[in-house]
Design goal:
InterPro entries: DNA_helicase_pif1-like_DEAD, P-loop_NTPase, PIF1_helicase. This is DNA helicase Pif1-like DEAD-box helicase domain-containing protein. GO terms for molecular function: DNA helicase activity. The protein is α/β, with parallel strands linked by helices. The chain has two domains: 170 residues, Rossmann fold; 226 residues, no CATH class. The protein is built from 16 helices and 20 strands. The strands form five sheets. The chain has a six-stranded parallel beta sheet. A five-stranded antiparallel beta sheet has the order 14-13-12-11-17, with no helix packed on it. β19, α14 and β20 form a beta-alpha-beta unit. α1 packs parallel to α2 and α9 crosses α10. The chain is globular, with a radius of gyration of 22 Å. The model has no long low-confidence stretch (mean pLDDT 91).
């Protein structure tokens, strides 16, 4: 397995994970957290190849779980919403053979988007792990890899963070704080994002953001920027209204319906449940209506065409039943159906087929988390209601040249004081590497 694409911080983090430590992998958006997790998981599955249930890849939301080809933590743990007491949850788990076997054979547990996990549930799952493994050390001896950024969107309906729990420091052996951003190449933009993330916004960063207010993003291909809004309601209105205008102008339009298929039935989950789970969490659109002139976003990587998730374009024509999309770089490609898969124990259980497109006049900030967007217009006005929202939106954009801001209010740049304090005490990976080299040289 070649790691030639890793930078030195990423390589250091991967090494610590491979050494068996319980790790918290963190850093700003765009440092390659998901990339490292993917490499580590492939390595761990080879290490435990005689035990197909040894490695579990989970995330705190269904959408983010599909992005990393995993399942939700709630599903893996067998806890549902996890609102009952630990004893009640244990009784529920022990009634399900498949869930019991997952806990019996698990060796490595990856939890992505840890910032969105309710700390009460974090403590419950840690206790459940100890009971199910019959071992009173943290997580019952399971190696845990927690990944995420607490400066991004927090857990819903929680006033606290997982790092505030008494269990956090007992569970984590190594904090791997990556700082080298690979999504945004512009150093000035990187500095702006770092300041916003940690709540230390200088006048220079404010000036740079103000310089992007009202900027008309132009290109030679009639592609408009995606507007990022905090409220889903605004997103739906804009996308539906703009599409209807095109249809009313007699532009050719087509409707594409997704197809969900259960490939393998599981004893403890019926077909209806599996289909509903896939329909709820897959990012594709079930009933996709697009017209010539529609602003669209590609929502799946296409290695053949060298297109990444988040690429923007405009529908120029239909070739038979397939839309042709012009990208920002001027290329025109025919979009074919994409197959999303839900895996369990390395077996495909459910698939969903649909065109990997969504209307992109507007998008919610929440939906954008985990994505990269090359052309965006962001509302940073008083509608920003959550800490981390402005940072998530801004850090999705690849370049300053691809950013336009509307309704800018400085108070929208909110970071939770507890998060600021937490990160101020962490030692970044580059400093840990330097310290190690200094020890060797002496």
């Amino acid at each position: 397995m070649s790691y030639i694409q890793l930078n030195i911080q990423q390589a250091y983090a991967l090494q610590q994970m491979k050494m068996g430590y319980n790790c918290f992998l963190t850093g700003p958006g765009g440092v390659g957290k998901s990339f490292i997790i993917d490499i580590f998981v492939k390595w761990a599955k080879i290490k435990y190849k005689s035990n197909p249930k040894a490695v579990a890849v989970t995330s705190t939301t269904g959408i983010s779980a599909l992005l990393i080809n995993g399942i939700t933590l709630h599903s893996f743990a067998g806890v549902g919403f996890g609102e009952e007491s630990v004893n009640r949850l244990l009784k529920k788990i022990n009634k399900k053979y498949a869930t019991k076997m997952r806990w019996k054979f698990i060796k490595v547990l990856v939890i992505d988007e840890i910032s969105m996990l309710n700390p009460i549930l974090f403590k419950k799952i840690e206790k459940i792990a100890r009971v199910m493994k019959g071992n009173d050390i943290p997580f019952g001896g399971i190696q845990i890899i927690l990944s995420g950024d607490f400066a991004q969107l927090p857990a819903v309906k929680s006033l606290k963070f997982c790092f505030e729990t008494s269990k956090w420091n007992k569970c984590i052996d190594k904090t791997l704080y990556l700082t080298e951003i690979v999504r945004q190449k512009n150093k000035i933009f990187q500095q702006c994002l770092n300041e916003i993330r940690l709540g230390k916004v200088t006048s220079q960063t404010i000036d740079i953001l103000k310089s992007r207010v009202g900027v008309k993003l132009k290109n030679d291909y009639n592609i408009e920027p995606t507007r990022l809004y905090s409220l889903k309601h605004h997103v739906n209105i804009i996308n539906n209204d703009r599409l209807q205008i095109l249809i009313n102008e007699d532009n050719v339009h087509k409707t594409y319906k997704s197809k969900t298929k259960v490939v393998k039935n599981l004893k403890n989950l019926n077909e209806k449940y599996l289909k509903n789970m896939m329909d709820k969490n897959c990012q594709c659109i079930d009933n996709l209506i697009i017209s010539i002139g529609s602003q669209v976003m590609i929502i799946a990587n296409n290695l053949t065409e060298k297109i990444v998730n988040g690429s923007r374009g405009i529908v120029t024509e239909f070739i038979g039943e397939s839309p042709k999309v012009r990208l920002l770089d001027g290329r025109e490609i025919v979009i074919l159906p994409h197959l999303w898969e839900y895996n369990k124990n390395d077996e495909v259980v459910v698939t969903k087929q649909q065109l990997p497109l969504r209307l992109a006049w507007a998008m919610s900030i929440h939906k954008s988390q985990g994505s990269s967007i090359d052309y965006a217009e962001i509302d940073l006005g008083l509608s920003i209601f959550e800490v981390g929202q402005a940072y998530v939106a801004l850090s999705r954009v690849r370049t300053l040249d691809g950013l336009s801001i509307i309704n800018f209010h400085e108070q929208s740049l909110k970071t939770h004081p507890k998060v600021i304090e937490f990160y101020s005490k962490l030692i970044p990976c580059n400093q840990l590497i330097k310290n190690s080299l200094d020890l060797i040289s002496h």
